[in-house]
Every structure is written in structure tokens, then in C-alpha cells.
From TrEMBL:
Residues 176-326 form the STAS domain. PROSITE patterns: STAS. It comes from Mikania micrantha (bitter vine). GO terms for cellular component: membrane. It holds the Pfam family Sulfate_transp. The chain crosses the membrane at residues 20-42, 63-85, 91-111, 123-146. It comes from the Eukaryota. GO terms for biological process: transmembrane transport. It is a multi-pass membrane protein. Keywords: Membrane, Transmembrane, Transmembrane helix. This is STAS domain-containing protein. It is found in: Membrane.
Length: 334
């Protein structure tokens, strides 16, 4: 035993060298194993999301769950079922199991939204129906592909701030025409594409949540509009116009005009964005006006009851007519 103790210190350097070389050989192998593990995990997640059932949150919400205690109850129920009730399901026919699944899932189908899509936009309804049938009869990716193929018209619309060319009734993008001048107290915005789900997301991005929430406060400090849900890019333009008007001519922004000349179509996502935009501008005491909406756009605005909320003074044939009429109404006010 003593001899072994005397030999061990002499072998310490050899042991360190052996451990170092062992680490050098194992490190690349560990890296390869880790990379393979990550790739396998990614594939399993992708395959699982395309073939698994509805999420637990959707089922809980449909069952009326309100708090996270539902997760505890659900986990306990599953545990008891797996431990004690599985023999009861062993001899259950597949038809009965299928009926149970269909009964649980049927409540997750929002047929009222499908009816609303049919009334407002037949193209949206066609996309919804094709996606539903594709997922039901073929697979989830094929169903997504059907709806995506039908509605893939536009992705990023051309947008900008419009100004008046002096001596004319023409309004053009201030970044493209140096002669175009902004109209005091007005923010004139142009959208040069149909407003669909694909570009309504683009219109809802790039905003400063903190500064915007401070500007839409109503009454006391605790009453704040939930701008993080429906805040859109248009509000960022409005904030920039307010800063520009305050810095250049000292006037305050009072009216927002959206040029709808190039908007040839609008779907339910665009209608929802327009409704929420009007609501938020009213909270800021700003008037929202639509200029020259097309026939199909006007029809959908009417079918969704959004056009009635604008009234007679909220829709004009041209931008110049809107600016002249609203300016004269301001002058007539005491």
C-alpha cells in the first residue's frame, strides 16, 4: 500500500496528459453527436406539429378553462387514465374511439367565422374551405398550401406620405416628388396595393410600443388602449407626421386621410385593421377619412358595417375635396 502511494505522485503528470488527449479526442465526437441530436430534434418537432392533434391550450379554452389550474387537473386526469383506466380502452372498438375524438373536436370548429367570411369575402371563404378540406382529407401541409396559393397576391404594399403639388389638385408621395408639400394639420397616407392578410401584417409591424401607448392614453393614466395587439404601421406614420408638423410649422395634427385609389381589394384582415385604426384614432381625437375607395372596397366596408361608422363626412371622392371640405368646416367652428 505504501509503495502504491509512493508511485502515484510520479504518475500525476502522465495522468494529466492522458486526460488531456482523451478530451481532445472526445470533443469532436461530442460536437458531432450534439449536431445530430439537434437535427433529429428539429425533424421530430416539425413532423409532430404537422401530424399531432390540437394543442392543449385550444382544448382547454374550448372546455371553458380560465386559469392555469386546468393544467393540473388535466395532468391528473391523464395520469389516472394511464395508470388505472387503460384496460378499459383495450377492447374498445376504433369506431367508438373515433366518435369520442370527433365529439371533442367538433366544438373547436368556428362555423360562425366561416359564415361571416362567405358574407363579406367569397375569396376568403374559398381559402378557408380549401384549407379545411385539404387538412381533413390529405394532410396539414397540403391544406396550408391550398389556402396560401389562393390568397398569395401581395406581400408588401407600396406605402408613403402624400403631399400637394402647389397650384394643382394633385397629391403625390413626398419622397418621390420634391415639389409635393405636406398640408398643415393633415396626414395624408397612400396605400398602393390591395389590403389582404399577407400585407396587413406588414402594416402592423415596426412600431414603438412604449411611446405609442403613452400617446393613446385616455382619461387617467391607468386607462390605456391595448395598442400592442392592433397597433399598425400607419400609426407610426401618424406619429412621424405629428413630429414633423410640430417642428416645421407649429400646427397640430387633426385629421388623417387614407388614399384608397390604388386599393383594389380588401379582405377581413384589412377590414379588422381599418376598424381598429379608426377606434384608436378616435381615442386620440383624430378624424379618419377615406379618399376615393373603389366599388368593391366600398361594398365590403358596407357589408361589414364599417362604412356606416365613418358617416357622410368620412368618405370623399378625392383627396383635394376632403382637404377643402374639412378645412372649411374647421374655419366655421367657433
Amino acid at each position: 500500500m505504501a509503495d502504491e502511494l509512493n508511485v502515484q505522485p510520479n504518475n500525476a503528470g502522465y495522468a494529466k496528459t492522458k486526460a488531456f488527449w482523451g478530451y481532445q479526442q472526445a470533443a469532436p465526437l461530442a460536437s458531432v453527436i450534439l449536431s445530430t441530436l439537434l437535427v433529429t430534434l428539429f425533424r421530430s418537432k416539425l413532423h409532430g406539429h404537422c401530424n399531432c392533434s390540437f394543442s392543449r391550450s385550444a382544448v382547454n379554452a374550448n372546455a371553458g378553462a380560465k386559469t392555469v389550474v386546468s393544467n393540473i387537473i388535466m395532468a391528473s386526469t391523464v395520469l389516472v387514465t394511464l395508470l388505472f383506466l387503460m384496460p378499459l380502452f383495450h377492447y374498445t372498438p376504433n369506431l367508438i374511439l373515433a366518435a369520442i375524438i370527433i365529439t371533442a373536436v367538433i366544438g373547436l370548429i368556428d362555423y360562425q367565422s366561416a359564415i361571416r367570411l362567405w358574407k363579406v369575402d367569397k375569396l376568403d371563404f374559398l381559402a378557408c374551405l380549401s384549407s379545411f378540406l385539404g387538412v381533413l382529407m390529405i394532410s396539414v401541409p397540403i391544406g396550408w398550401g391550398f389556402s396560401f396559393k389562393i390568397l398569395l397576391h401581395v406581400t408588401r404594399p407600396n406605402t408613403g406620405v402624400l403631399g400637394n403639388i402647389p397650384g394643382t389638385q394633385i397629391y403625390q408621395n413626398v419622397n418621390r416628388y420634391r415639389e409635393a408639400k405636406r398640408v398643415p394639420s393633415f396626414a395624408i397616407l397612400g396605400i398602393e396595393a390591395p389590403i389582404y392578410f399577407a400585407n396587413s401584417t406588414y402594416l402592423q409591424e415596426r412600431y414603438d410600443v412604449n411611446s405609442l401607448m403613452l400617446k393613446v392614453q385616455v382619461g387617467n393614466a391607468s386607462q390605456v388602449v391595448e395598442t400592442h395587439v392592433f397597433c399598425c404601421r400607419i400609426l407610426r406614420w401618424i406619429r412621424e407626421e405629428e413630429d414633423w408638423l410640430a417642428a416645421n410649422n407649429g400646427s397640430s395634427l387633426r385629421c388623417v386621410i387614407i388614399d384608397m385609389t390604388a386599393v383594389t381589394g380588401i379582405d377581413t384582415s384589412g377590414l379588422a385593421m381599418m376598424k381598429d385604426l379608426k377606434r384608436m384614432l378616435e381615442k386620440r381625437s383624430l378624424q379618419l377619412v377615406l379618399a376615393n375607395p373603389g366599388g368593391s372596397v366600398t361594398e365590403k366596408l358596407h357589408q361589414s358595417n364599417i362604412l356606416e361608422s365613418f358617416g357622410l363626412e368620412g368618405v370623399y371622392l378625392t383627396i383635394d375635396e376632403a382637404v377643402a371640405d374639412i378645412s372649411s368646416s374647421w374655419k366655421s367652428q367657433p
